[in-house]
Specification:
Elements: H1 2-37, E1 46-47, E2 50-51, E3 55-57, E4 63-68, E5 71-74, H2 78-83, H3 85-88, H4 99-102, H5 104-108, E6 125-127, H6 132-142, E7 147-153, E8 159-165, H7 185-188, H8 198-208, E9 217-219, E10 222-226, E11 229-232, E12 238-240, H9 242-248, H10 251-261, H11 263-272, E13 280-281, E14 284-285, H12 297-305, H13 314-325, H14 341-347, H15 362-380, E15 390-397, E16 406-413, E17 420-426, H16 432-448
Parallel strand pairs: 3-6
Antiparallel strand pairs: 1-2, 3-4, 4-5, 7-8, 7-17, 9-12, 10-11, 13-14, 15-16, 16-17
Helix pairs in contact: 6-16, 8-10, 8-11, 9-15, 10-12
Length: 449
């Protein structure tokens, strides 16, 4: 009897170990099955080290890239191929945001039930929210200059344009590439923001200072902080309040406003507006913006102006523009259209769970929207954007090293039929409104038309 009892206990222990093992395996299968299936040693998925399954299309059904046993096939148009190289990837798999690295699971058609099995063994058709023709327009508008253009629907989250330069034709790669060519500047780069950051400082002022709208300074073109330190402007602006200072982009005003707010409050609003967070765009993680927050003095002044150690990710700034357009709360961007029946049904529902936390109050968003419209009407000129109901802020960011400043233009269309937020960066391009603003107009006109 004792032997039988011991054996029974042993069997129970073995059964428990088996159950635990099955539980651990089941958990790991559901959690990591996609990684197992997409492992490069899987010969059903890879041929000679290259992904051999899956096809990528734009929102209009244009072929962008197809994986075959003989290698990658791209769109017939060289401009489209070049403009979207940071999304399709190249044949040597150099691009971290390229489809074969970022969207492997979707392309091979992995699911929990069937693994990567399909009747024709060709993988899945993946449709992106991008419009290839608009991306080609953005690439041509950059005209060979380094930078990035991003546009998304701030009501749905669909990214319609994502272009990064420098780039190259993946069907005709150069023998050598310039530094930073493999970097997707829109998702993975950070850059000195310059005056576009004043939209964050302005939000902090509106929500925390009783005299936010009435507080004025007399801009004489510079503010002396002693020891040779000063904040300077390109012009003498005279008496300015918040709206006028944003319109003429007065550094003297925003430098003193930053001191009035304090480094802690600017830090709070930099975090609140989402700039220090990484976004997840269908598996592509964006770079986080970085800042320092001095306690006071000239460095704090320059921080609130968008200089000093400020470094901003373009995608994050675009999403902040979406929040201003969308009553203070942004919709998180995405780039892959839903393919399964369940995902398609969920996509028809209100975007529950896809919004950010409130970045600014609704009343603050309304005020900033009005001020950004005023920027266009009384500074940049509405004739620069014919037919567009545009709200915007330019930035001319000094980068040092005797280089020309980075040109920025950010904003959105205040148009229910065309709810698009955008960001344009032209590295070492010069003045924001004239250089980056021109690129923005070209792209937005193509979208609206």
């Amino acid at each position: 009897m004792k032997k039988i009892e011991k054996r029974a206990i042993m069997c129970l222990l073995l059964a428990c170990v088996l159950l635990v093992g099955v539980g651990v395996f089941s958990y790991r299968y559901f959690a990591y099955g996609d990684d197992w299936a997409s492992y490069e040693g899987n010969r059903d998925v890879y041929t000679k080290g290259d992904l051999s399954k899956g096809t990528l299309y734009d929102i209009n059904g244009q072929l962008l890239m197809q994986n075959t046993a003989e290698g990658m096939i791209f769109n017939e148009d060289a401009t489209i191929r070049t403009s979207l190289m940071h999304i399709t990837g190249d044949r040597d798999n150099n691009i971290a945001t390229g489809a074969n690295r970022a969207f492997t699971d979707e392309l091979i058609g992995y699911d929990f039930i069937n693994g990567v099995y399909s009747l024709n063994n060709a993988g899945e058709d993946v449709t992106l929210t991008l419009d290839a023709n608009i991306c080609a327009t953005a690439y041509q508008a950059l005209d060979g200059r380094n930078g990035t253009v991003g546009v998304y629907n701030y009501e749905t989250g669909q990214i319609v344009c994502m272009v990064s330069s420098p780039t190259y034709d993946p069907m005709d790669p150069p023998s050598s590439v310039a530094d930073g060519t493999y970097l997707n500047r829109f998702t993975n780069g950070t850059f000195v923001p310059g005056s576009i950051f004043k939209l964050v400082t302005a939000a902090a002022s509106i929500e925390n200072l009783d005299d936010a709208y009435s507080w004025q300074i007399n801009c004489t073109g510079s503010v002396d902080y002693g020891h040779g330190d000063e904040v300077t402007d390109l012009a003498v602006h005279g008496t300015v309040d918040l709206q006028k200072a944003l319109e003429v982009s007065c550094n003297c005003y925003f430098g003193q406003l930053s001191e009035k707010l304090g480094g802690g409050l600017i830090e709070k609003y930099t975090e609140k507006t989402g700039l220090t967070k990484s976004l997840d765009i269908n598996g592509i993680k964006t770079a986080t913006s970085t800042f320092d927050y001095p306690e006071g003095g000239v460095n704090l002044a320059w921080t609130g102006i968008g200089q000093y150690h400020d470094m901003v990710n373009p995608c994050s700034m675009m999403v902040y523009m979406g929040a201003i357009a969308n009553d203070g709360t942004a919709v998180i961007p995405y780039i892959i259209e839903p393919t399964s029946f369940l995902d398609k049904q969920l996509a028809k529902l209100p975007k529950f769970g896809t919004k950010t936390e409130s970045m600014i109050d609704t009343s603050t968003a309304t005020s900033l929207k009005s001020m950004m419209a005023n920027n266009v009407e009384n500074n940049y000129g509405t004739d620069m954007f014919p037919g567009l109901s545009i709200c915007a802020k330019s930035g001319t960011a000094e980068v040092g090293g005797n280089k020309r400043p980075n040109a920025w233009f950010v904003g959105f269309l205040d148009d229910p039929e065309n709810p698009y937020a955008f960001v344009v960066l032209v590295e070492n391009g010069g003045y924001g409104s004239s250089v980056a603003g021109s690129v923005a107009n070209t792209v937005l006109q193509d979208i609206v038309d």
